[in-house]
Design brief:
The chain has 943 residues and is of the alpha+beta class. It is built from 42 helices and 16 strands. Belongs to the GlnD family.
């Protein structure tokens, strides 16, 4: 629906509003403050009722542009009424000489519910204080009504002078629109602006606007595929559309996008695409403002569901309603990118944007094209690949793929004209081209390039080529996952994973990935690894498990890409198992031999192990900023080395008793400068599991810590150590052993705001607990992190000593931290006696929340279960806690009735994700009396 087809009169009875305001002013005593106060309820009611009608119309017709135009019309009428009142009752002699104009977004005749009102008040050359007072009165009324008003009061001469100096002012004046007052001033401004400014500065303006756009994109992460995009400022958002129109208006002297069709800049289909994109983005933005009651521009997780519902999206197999909505959003953002390329290509053809630093004759001389060696289809134009002639793709569609290959080989950027031609020739990418051996050879060369495969793949994706050439990839283009864990859409994630693999391949980030960088040069099936990385999530969004479905897709695609049967089998296995190594490393006890043997049984070969490690690293790194850290790297390396020993036949079968004895002797030897009495006492302080799993360096640290605590006669003590490489901080706790000790420590960490990543739990031979809690690092600076860790340590000591009570401190923390009601995670509890030879493994999955770990461990203590080790893993909003437990005599939990009780109790705790936080903690969480706790003994680390 075009603007002229909208019936605006139903939004506001302007005549009645004028009468009401006149009546208020007539009754006034002449005091301006009293008149303003009396006007407010009348104007506010009219504004609120009009905007509510605009909101209802948005729900009815779904048009965002119509809504934005309705709100702009309402705002115009309010300003007109106020202006008329000022001219009639307040400053009748001066107001008629003032021109009130809208600028910026408001100047385009569109306004979101929470947008600023940008106004330019034009004064005649000879202006008076009374004119400025009239402007002030109008502004004060708008401010009193709660509007955010951006304003300037200038003469036409001042506007022209300032627009020569300031590109922002120039852009604002470009969209000046008359509202009321002296129309001749606004017309004079328009005439002089185009004659004195626009006619002589087209290339400069275009370069400035494109530069601003690039800077804005870079600030936002330079991708349109962030899962919480900024609808106004983000890549592919409304600001990009506005930038296009600014450029078109400045260069082509058009008032509407439709006029670009008549000029041949856009096709009619592209113009319709422009309309649809703008209308959709305005609909999203207006719904966001109405929903939040403010100028919210970030489409965050907590409002995405409701926006999707308001826009009428419904779930489909494999995709929720919100995921379908967000996929549509990202496809629209991609359309905006296509339009940008097309317009830039048209400008290039007219030489509207000269090369940086070159103008006039020099620029035209330097713009001559050069032949690219070995290529007859393409030429080089200022470092960009361009078509030798317009018919290249029609003569040979394989050239569509070849263009990207040649650009990669020669390090060329892409001429907008070439990208426009690709966008208009996508229909040439059909089954015949997809099966073409040369096209697939070129694609594999791009994918495995040693230059920058990710950049080329991203250009292919943005141009729509990748999704057409690999239809299965096309299904996941712009697909988002409604999860805090995933920062990008699926297609962007896969391309970033290829980028991570390429960086490892080049030997980059050797400090972060020492093992992967060491292994990569020896990977024999390099092509298979690159294909597996590109395709590992290609089946996301299906009802079937994406690993299984993805393996089936790979089975179909690999022969097409030219891979041999053995390579295909390897790619299929890697995709089928691409989550295995990450999940085992993060959720299983790597000191438990059964963990390693089960993993090795699945992997079966060293080649698979090497490639799976590198694929896992690339996958995690591509999830988003901050997801990868050194702690995860350490876990993966530990699992790799343990499995490598087993697969290569090097796993030691020396008895655990003998290895523990050797470890004890090594510790005693390391304490050679201690007295004989202390060496004997402290080297014999630990049981077998500790001696076999803790490195000698840490054993020495621990016994030194324990001896210092003994000399100070401390029943409770903590020790902290930072590890910047692993992004982990260790907090070691020495305390009288107690069945609820881990629960108390977990609660204290929750109260201190610490995120626990792992827990190493040991009992000494004299009945004390030596627990090392690994918490995620928060500060980069070691001094800051040590202070934070010391605070956490004091909190643990205070709770254990009874100086603080957990219910109060956790409740305080929970109130301070906003409860996440945006996401739901299906709670799950599993019990397994097959994952470990000695322990029962409990795995609890649910929505993360403050104090959850403390509640779970408290329940385990209630159930008389002894926790031997714990793994705490968080994936965005979802937590997976794994516990290796026995009963109090060191046996697995095999009784079915008892297993049922455990399941029921744990499900009750984890299922409370939808409830309000309970008041306080379970009654089981108490701080033990240090004096009596030594009489309560567990066997958690003695088995």
């Amino acid at each position: 629906m075009a603007r002229h087809e909208i019936d605006f009169s139903e939004l506001l009875d302007v005549q009645q509003l004028r009468k009401d305001c006149d009546a208020v002013a007539a009754k006034g005593s002449g005091k301006l403050l009293e008149v303003r106060a009396a006007l407010l309820p009348v104007l506010r009611q009219a504004s609120n009722e009009g905007r509510e009608k605009a909101r209802q119309k948005l729900s009815e017709d779904g048009s965002g542009l119509n809504c934005a135009e309705r709100i702009s019309w309402i705002q115009d009428r309010l300003i007109e009424v106020i202006y008329a009142l000022v001219a009639k009752h307040i400053y009748p002699k001066s107001t008629a000489d003032v021109s009130v104009t809208a600028v910026g977004g408001y100047g385009r005749g569109t306004l979101a519910p929470g947008s600023d009102i940008d106004l330019l008040f034009l004064l005649p050359p000879k202006n008076t204080d009374e004119m400025r007072k009239a402007v002030e009165f109008l502004l004060y009324v708008l401010w009193d009504l709660g509007f955010k008003v951006g304003h300037a009061t200038r003469t036409v001469d001042e506007c022209i002078a300032l627009s020569k100096q300031d590109m922002t002012i120039r852009t604002a004046i470009l969209e000046t629109r008359y509202i009321c007052g002296n129309v001749k001033l606004e017309q004079d401004l328009q005439n002089r602006f185009y004659g004195e400014i626009v006619n002589h500065s087209g290339p400069d303006f275009i370069a400035a606007k494109l530069g601003e756009r690039d800077a804005r994109h870079k600030k936002a992460g330079d991708t349109r595929y962030l899962v919480e995009p900024n609808v106004k400022e983000g890549k592919g958002g409304l600001r990009d559309i506005q930038t296009l129109f600014w450029i078109a208006k400045y260069h082509y002297r058009v008032r509407t996008a439709e006029e670009l069709v008549k000029l041949g800049v856009l096709s009619r289909q592209e113009w319709r695409l422009f309309q649809k994109a703008e209308d959709f983005l305005w609909a999203v933005r207006c719904h966001m403002h109405f929903l939040t009651g403010k100028a919210e521009e970030r489409l965050s997780f907590d409002i995405q569901r409701e926006i999707a519902e308001n826009l009428g999206y419904h779930a489909r197999p494999g995709l929720s309603a919100v995921e379908r909505f967000m996929k549509h959003y990202f496809l629209v953002a991609k359309d905006v990118g296509d339009l940008t390329r097309i317009l830039c290509a048209a400008l290039e053809e007219e030489q509207a944007k000269p090369a940086p630093g070159l103008t006039g004759v020099i620029s035209r001389f330097r713009r001559r094209v050069r032949r690219i060696p070995g290529s007859s289809e393409f030429v080089e134009d200022q470092g960009r690949i361009a078509l030798a002639d317009p018919e290249v793709f029609k003569r040979d569609p394989v050239s569509i793929i070849r263009l990207f290959h040649v650009a990669d080989l020669h390090g060329l950027e892409y001429h907008p004209d070439a990208l426009k031609a690709i966008t208009r020739c996508l229909s040439l990418i059909d089954d015949r081209l997809r099966e073409d051996a040369e096209a697939n050879r070129l694609f594999m060369s791009i994918l495995t390039s040693r230059i920058d495969p990710a950049m080329t793949l991203r250009r292919m994706n943005e141009a729509g080529v990748l999704g057409r050439f690999i239809p299965e990839f096309g299904k996941i283009v712009a697909m988002m996952q409604f999860s805090m864990y995933h920062h990008y859409t699926v297609d962007e994630h896969l391309i970033r994973a290829v980028e991570a693999l390429s960086n490892i391949d080049k030997g980059l980030f050797a400090d972060e990935h020492p093992l992967a960088n060491k292994l990569m040069p020896h990977i024999e099936e390099r092509e298979a690894l690159y294909v597996a990385v590109l395709l590992h999530d290609i089946a996301k969004g299906r009802q079937e498990d994406h690993s299984i479905a993805g393996a089936r897709v790979a089975r179909k695609l690999c022969p097409r890409f030219g891979l041999k049967p053995k390579q295909t089998d390897l790619v299929v296995w890697l995709i089928d198992q691409h989550l295995l190594m990450s999940m085992v490393a993060q959720t299983r006890d790597l000191n438990d031999r059964k963990t390693v043997t089960d993993f090795a049984d699945t992997v079966q070969s060293l080649d698979r192990l090497k490639m799976l490690l590198i694929l896992t690293i690339a996958d995690i790194r591509a999830v988003g900023p901050g997801v990868w850290n050194g702690w995860k790297g350490q876990l993966l390396r530990t699992l790799y080395y343990e499995t490598e020993l087993l697969l290569s036949g090097g796993f030691s079968e020396v008895s655990r008793k003998e290895r523990a004895k050797a470890s004890e002797e090594a510790l005693a030897h390391a304490l050679s400068d201690w007295s004989q009495k202390d060496r004997k006492l402290y080297s014999r302080l630990h049981y077998q599991p500790y001696l076999l799993s803790v490195p000698l360096e840490d054993q020495v640290r621990h016994v030194t810590f324990i001896r210092e605590a003994d000399r100070s006669e401390k029943a409770l003590a903590t020790m902290v150590r930072t590890d910047s490489f692993r992004a982990i901080t260790e907090i070691t706790v020495l305390a009288p052993d107690h069945p609820r000790l881990l629960s108390i420590i977990a609660g204290a960490c929750a109260a201190a705001g610490a995120n626990i990543a792992d827990a190493q739990i040991f009992t000494t031979t004299d009945g004390r607990a030596l627990d090392t809690i690994l918490v995620s690092r928060e500060f980069q600076n070691d001094e800051d992190e040590l202070r934070r860790a010391a605070t956490i340590g004091r909190m643990i000591e205070d709770v254990l000593a009874g100086r603080k009570r957990l219910p109060e401190v956790i409740a305080t923390r929970a109130k301070a931290k906003k409860r996440n009601k945006t996401f739901t995670v299906h709670p799950s509890v599993t019990i397994s006696n097959t994952l470990s030879n000695k322990f029962t493994v409990l795995e609890v999955e649910g929505l993360d929340r403050t104090g959850l770990l403390a509640e779970i461990t408290s329940v385990l203590a209630d159930l008389s279960l002894d926790i031997h080790s714990a793994r705490i893993t968080t994936f965005g909003e979802k937590v997976i806690d794994t516990f290796y437990v026995t009963d109090l005599v060191g046996q697995k939990i095999t009784n079915e009735n008892r297993q049922g009780t455990i399941l029921q109790r744990l499900k009750t705790v984890v299922s409370e994700q939808e409830d309000e936080l309970r008041k306080g903690m379970p009654s089981g969480i108490i701080a033990p009396d240090p004096a009596s706790a030594t009489t309560i003994r567990t066997t958690r680390a003695q088995a």
